[in-house]
Design a protein that fits this description.
599 residues; 25% helix; 30 strands; five-stranded mixed beta sheet; seven-stranded mixed beta sheet; alpha+beta; binds zinc ion
């Protein structure tokens, strides 16, 4: 590693071979949280006061200090053991090292269980953004959470929230009860094992729909009024607009910025996403989903049963343009809801084992959003455009001169963002390449007769096997190997090493050249002469390259896949029996089936 003010990075990090063999390479801390009982009060000014009873199991012998993750401005007031005796703790000033650590009176052994009661509170974990909008800034550390929080540990939760009584809350888990007590709205939430807990609240309006197949309650929440920052932008925008001419209509739209009428859009997209992903991946671990609006415009997030959608998504593109918020995040506005809903499967139902496996959470969620574009919006151009955007993200150079695809493999995760590669490389690597990896597997498994059946079977098996558990990259590889087709067995050993070494653990990017012509053979059939050239790879690089024909009637058909190894060409003459008219054209990887350099 390099440790320097201007140069910082952990360049390599490996487990010992025997740790890998013993399974000790699995992510493991000093203690595992089994249960959280969280009692939380949030005042009108957003001040948060909490009491957490955290039950833990010790994972190693000789543990004296339990590390927690707690938002720095939430100051710990007291820590006690179950019987009420005070425990020592460390929490330096929020501007210093605010890490929260509890010191036990004596060392504990592996398997010991204990409950720690923490009382804490403060501002800034939640921000009052005006107009009845509240922005929960602390997402995974508004309560004393696991110090190595990574969505790979599962605990059960009992939660009580007290908020001002004219407000509505949506939280993770099942709503047990909700009532007004004095000046507060008190709600109780309960959940089985899940990787994290969270909430969103405000002066919300809510609409819901009950689904039968799968059995699911989908809810959509939005605020009645925009937050102060949008109101002030509106003010400026309205002043800048001419009162006549083509922009007048936009001025009218800007004057009426309530997002309530748009609740239905999020509700419909949530419902369709839940149905699509249940079909493709199997049931999630949940029966409920609340899609909520958040003040922050530039990102969304997903917790079990709770999704935060950036407020600007609720505005149409004209209004976003007027507000100067269409800074062209490729595909983001088109797929924010379907991406976040997909995390109900990727990251929550199936957790990931460590930062090395996080590419599966973000990548699979992005790939899921592509299924939404293709199968719900039924827009092939948007689908292909989506993959072009993803490839561009991987191949454009950042200001340090790096292409994300060359910086390193997806399994290096967020560690890849360092001073050498530029801090932004991970966003341009994990999401798009993770998505491409799953997309390529889907396209390899696609069958002319059964379509996506084999891919669906693989994903159902993966989700079912790892429900409420963390999966590693190798776990996923083993699942693909269990369901791989004969054609995918390029090394004849029922292993997918060739593909994982190239795209998951490696940084390969092949180039292709395609030459073809159509003749007639003596029998009068159309004869397809083709030559596929693969280059810019090592000699062992193998790939299945699909060939598509656009027929005279406009249909696009998959003719089959060429198996190419190394820097070579393959040439073939294929009689297209029964085809009267020659195809309009032939194409390689029409659906971006193979991540390759653009031609
Ligand atoms: Zn995501």
């Amino acid at each position: 590693m390099t440790y320097d003010e201007n140069k910082l990075g952990l360049w390599t990090s490996f487990h010992f071979a025997d740790e890998e063999e013993k399974g000790a390479a699995r992510h493991q801390g000093v203690a595992r949280i089994e249960h959280q009982q969280l009692d939380t009060t949030i005042e009108k000014n957003a001040n948060l006061q909490g009491k957490a009873s955290t039950t833990l199991v010790i994972l190693q012998d000789g543990i004296r200090v339990i590390p927690f993750s707690l938002f720095p401005s939430l100051r710990v007031q007291s820590v006690t053991a179950e019987g009420g005796q005070p425990l020592a703790f460390i929490q330096e000033d929020k501007k210093d090292d605010a890490d929260f650590r509890v010191i036990l009176p004596k060392a504990l052994s592996k398997g010991d269980e204990l409950t720690i009661i923490t009382v804490y509170g403060g501002k800034e974990a939640v921000v009052n953004t005006g107009g009845g909008n509240y922005f929960p800034i602390a997402r995974e550390d508004w309560y004393p959470n696991s110090a190595n929080f990574s969505l790979g540990e599962y605990a059960s939760y009992d939660m009580t929230f007290r908020i001002p009584k004219n407000m509505k809350i949506a939280a993770t888990g099942d709503l047990v009860s909700e009532q007004n007590e004095g000046g507060e709205s008190v709600s109780i939430w309960k959940s089985g094992r899940q990787p994290v807990a969270g909430f969103n609240f405000g002066k919300f309006k809510m609409q819901e729909i009950k689904l039968d197949k799968p059995e699911y309650l989908v809810q959509s929440y939005a605020n009645e009024e925009p937050p102060d920052v949008i109101k002030s932008l509106l003010h400026v925008a309205n002043e800048d607009l001419p009162t006549q001419g083509p922009h007048m209509m936009e001025g009218v739209a800007l004057g009426n910025m309530s997002t309530v009428p748009l609740i239905k859009k999020a509700l419909a997209e949530g419902q369709l996403s839940v149905q699509l992903y249940t079909d493709y991946f199997g049931p999630s671990a949940y029966k409920r989903l609340a899609i909520t609006q958040q003040t922050s415009c530039n990102y969304g997030q997903s917790w079990p049963e709770l999704v935060w959608i950036p407020m600007c998504y609720f505005y149409d593109s004209t209004i976003r343009h007027q507000l100067g918020m269409d800074w062209g995040d490729r595909g983001y506005w088109k797929s924010v809801t379907s991406h976040e809903v997909a995390h109900q499967w990727w990251g929550h139902t199936v957790g990931f084992n460590s930062y090395r496996d996080q590419w599966m959470s973000e990548g699979f969620a992005e790939m899921s959003a592509s299924l939404y574009l293709q199968l719900i919006e039924k827009n092939p151009q948007k689908f292909i455009g989506f993959w072009n955007d993803q490839r561009e993200l991987l191949l454009e150079r950042d200001k340090e001169g790096w292409r994300a695809i060359d910086a390193g493999p997806v399994t290096m995760g967020y560690r890849m963002s360092n001073s050498r590669t530029g801090e932004g490389v991970t966003r341009r690597l994990i999401y798009p390449k993770g998505a491409y990896i799953l997309h390529m597997i889907r396209m390899m498994m696609w069958d002319r007769r059964t379509g996506d059946e084999n891919f669906k079977t693989t994903m159902h098996d993966f989700v079912q096997t790892y429900t409420n558990r963390a999966a590693s990259t190798e776990d996923f590889k083993a699942m693909v190997e269990k369901h791989m087709t004969q054609e995918m067995d390029l090394e004849g050993n029922r292993k997918m090493d060739w593909f994982f070494n190239e795209y998951v653990y490696g940084t390969s990017l092949p180039s292709y050249k395609f030459n073809y012509s159509f003749d007639r053979d003596p029998a009068g059939d159309v004869l397809f002469n083709l030559k596929v050239t693969q280059s810019n790879v090592d000699d062992k690089f193998r790939m299945l390259v699909p060939i598509y024909l656009e027929l005279a009637d406009g249909r696009m058909v998959n003719l089959g896949r060429a198996h190419v190894t190394g820097n070579t060409s393959i040439e073939q003459k294929v009689p297209l029996k029964g085809l009267k008219d020659a195809p309009k054209r032939a194409l390689l990887s029409y659906y971006d089936d193979v991540l390759a350099a653009p031609n």
